[in-house]
């Protein structure tokens, strides 16, 4: 029922008696002569009141509410649909999105060359998109993009020399499948397999292993299509300086159209997962780093739990028992129990009895648990402790092909920041990698940050690509990569906004220790600050580590109209216009 607000003089019921404090005023009015103006005012206000009542009645009976109106949820305002010629493109976690009218998908080298030549002539943007998975949306541009999704063929396999030449739009998973019949595979892998090979190498992606470099080091040669100079063939022999610069070129020097990669023989690995603690890790770290082909640590904040994952060829193991002590259901039992208890607290007891809970994987359960109260530190600590229990009951061995073993379920949508820093050499590790983690974990506890698990720590050898965060001329150098995260386990816009703000506060606090370790962010995960002073500081910091002037010089030679650029690239590497002296 609709309610109308009426003047207070109309709300007193007929026949009601005046209160005591009104009597003197009423007596005075009754004994005084009634001026003509008072009668006119009364008629005027009575008319207003009748008009207001009439309007209210007309509105009520003309637009009645349905009988169940009070039980219906409010319908949010919906924006008009996007025009049909707009392409909505977002990264995997939906943290970055653009709407662009131009999204080209050439199906041949010639079509790509024509597209870039036209964009150069017309001074239009055409940013290489890759698969668009990067956490920071480095390949996105609302002004225009080009995807090589239709350029995804294997062009040549040299089984003898263990090399493969592919079009750069092929996805890593598809390439691995194609190499299988030739008995080959890639040397190392990142956590996921959905990247296009071109983007995979351009951002300096990496796996883990102190003797294994980032993936750009697997590049032997490539064809780079540039706006100003057409297609350039690059290798260690053909223009080596530009070759090394362009291997990790962030899509700013040209579009990688074809690439030849060094492969290795297809092989199996035995993965050993076990739970340790900080003291044991310190005691064994140098030994583990040198003895294991692949190794990573998963640190669980607010606990003393470190999950150690070691992967090696089967020959290194003496027929290990390839089963875990506990079954999958037993490993998940504690996490399921916590989820049911939390549902009773935050939701309803009925929901806690939902049989579907027993079908969820660990990462799905973690997402649902965090979604109940993602920014409450005490709640996040409970979830982290449940994760520690899960890993304790998941200890054991498993064996499989390297591309299967080296993958990692990262969980649902998330914000992530990962940085890379030198940590000595393979023969003489300096232990700064563990010192960094100790400071980070202490910072989290001191600041009461609702930091979920895990903090993933990996290692690589050096890269000769000067734009790689692991760039170094030291053949024996080792770099550690550390990633922090906050999950986005909800579609609620306000909650996602709150998580986003908390994550950037978390990242800012972590940033306070970067300079002590010469740590620099992964190119696919670096975020551009909005504050001008912070941006200027970041630009200066990047100049201290990377050959920014050489990179910008190459950009201006190969792409003077900045066809391949986007806002992120321009802010990270602003091109300083030359000052012309007056004659």
From TrEMBL:
One cellular-component annotation, GO: membrane
Keywords: Oxidoreductase
Transmembrane regions listed in the UniProt entry: none
Pathway, per record: Cofactor biosynthesis; L-ascorbate biosynthesis
Recorded GO MF terms: D-arabinono-1,4-lactone oxidase activity; FAD binding; galactonolactone dehydrogenase activity
SUPFAM superfamilies: FAD-binding/transporter-associated domain-like
GO biological process, one term: L-ascorbic acid biosynthetic process
Domain FAD-binding PCMH-type: residue ranges: 95-266
InterPro entries: ALO_C, FAD-bd_PCMH, FAD-bd_PCMH-like_sf, FAD-bd_PCMH_sub1, FAD-bd_PCMH_sub2, FAD_lactone_oxidase-like, GL_DH, Oxid_FAD_bind_N
Top-level taxon in the UniProt lineage: Eukaryota
Pfam family, one: FAD_binding_4
Oxidoreductase among keywords: yes
Gene3D superfamilies cross-referenced by the UniProt entry: 3.30.465.10, Uridine Diphospho-n-acetylenolpyruvylglucosamine Reductase, domain 2
Cofactor(s) demanded: FAD
Keyword presence, Cell division: no
NCBIfam families: GLDHase
Protein name, per record: FAD-binding PCMH-type domain-containing protein
């Amino acid at each position: 029922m609709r309610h109308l607000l009426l003047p207070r003089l109309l709300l007193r019921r007929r026949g009601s008696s005046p209160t005591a404090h009104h009597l003197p005023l009423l007596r005075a009015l009754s004994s005084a002569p009634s001026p003509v103006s008072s009668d006119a005012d009364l008629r005027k206000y009575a008319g207003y009141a009748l008009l207001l009542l009439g309007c209210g009645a007309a509105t009520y009976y003309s637009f009645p509410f349905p009988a169940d109106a009070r039980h219906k949820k409010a319908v949010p305002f919906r924006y008009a649909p996007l025009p049909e010629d707009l392409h909505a493109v977002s990264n995997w976690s939906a943290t970055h999105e653009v709407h662009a009218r131009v999204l080209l998908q050439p199906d041949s080298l010639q079509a790509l060359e024509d597209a870039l030549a036209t964009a150069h002539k017309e001074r239009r943007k055409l940013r290489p998109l890759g698969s668009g998975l990067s956490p920071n949306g480095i390949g996105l541009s609302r002004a225009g993009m080009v995807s090589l999704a239709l350029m995804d063929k294997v062009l040549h396999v040299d089984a003898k020399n263990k090399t493969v030449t592919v079009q750069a739009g092929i996805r890593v998973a598809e390439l691995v499948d194609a190499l299988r019949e030739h008995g080959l595979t890639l040397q190392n892998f990142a956590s996921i397999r959905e990247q296009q090979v071109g983007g995979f190498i351009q951002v300096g992606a990496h796996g883990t292993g102190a003797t294994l470099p980032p993936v750009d080091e697997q590049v032997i040669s490539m064809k780079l299509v540039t706006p100003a100079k057409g297609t350039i063939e690059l290798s260690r022999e053909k223009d080596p300086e530009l070759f090394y610069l362009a291997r990790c070129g962030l899509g700013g020097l040209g579009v990688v159209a074809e690439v030849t990669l060094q492969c290795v023989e297809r092989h199996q690995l035995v993965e050993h997962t076990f739970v340790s603690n900080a003291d044991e890790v310190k005691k064994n770290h140098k030994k583990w780093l040198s003895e294991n082909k692949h190794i990573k640590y998963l640190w669980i904040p607010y606990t003393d739990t470190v999950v150690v994952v070691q992967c090696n060829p089967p020959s290194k193991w003496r027929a290990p028992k390839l089963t875990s002590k506990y079954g999958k259901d037993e490993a998940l039992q504690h996490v399921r129990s916590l989820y049911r208890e939390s549902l009773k607290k935050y939701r309803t007891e009925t929901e806690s009895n939902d049989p579907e809970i027993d079908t969820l994987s660990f990462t799905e359960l973690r997402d649902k648990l965090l979604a109940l109260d993602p920014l409450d530190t005490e709640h996040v600590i409970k979830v982290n402790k449940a994760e520690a229990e899960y890993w304790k009951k998941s200890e054991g061995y498993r064996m499989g092909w390297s591309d299967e073993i080296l993958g990692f379920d990262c969980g649902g949508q998330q914000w992530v920041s990962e940085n890379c820093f030198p940590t000595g050499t393979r023969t003489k590790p300096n232990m700064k990698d563990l010192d960094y983690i100790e400071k980070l974990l202490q910072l989290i506890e001191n600041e009461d940050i609702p930091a979920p698990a895990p903090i993933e720590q990996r290692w690589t050898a050096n890269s000769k690509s000067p734009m790689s965060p692991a760039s170094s001329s030291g053949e024996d150098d080792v770099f550690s990569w550390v990633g922090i995260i906050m999950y986005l386990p909800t579609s609620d816009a306000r909650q996602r906004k709150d998580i986003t703000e908390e994550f950037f506060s978390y990242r800012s606090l972590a940033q306070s220790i970067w300079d002590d370790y010469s740590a620099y962010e992964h190119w696919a995960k670096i975020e551009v600050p909005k504050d001008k002073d912070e941006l200027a500081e970041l630009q200066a910091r990047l100049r201290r580590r990377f050959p920014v002037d050489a990179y910008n010089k190459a950009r201006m030679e190969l792409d003077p109209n900045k066809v391949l650029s986007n806002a992120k690239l321009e802010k990270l590497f602003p091109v300083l216009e030359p000052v012309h002296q007056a004659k």
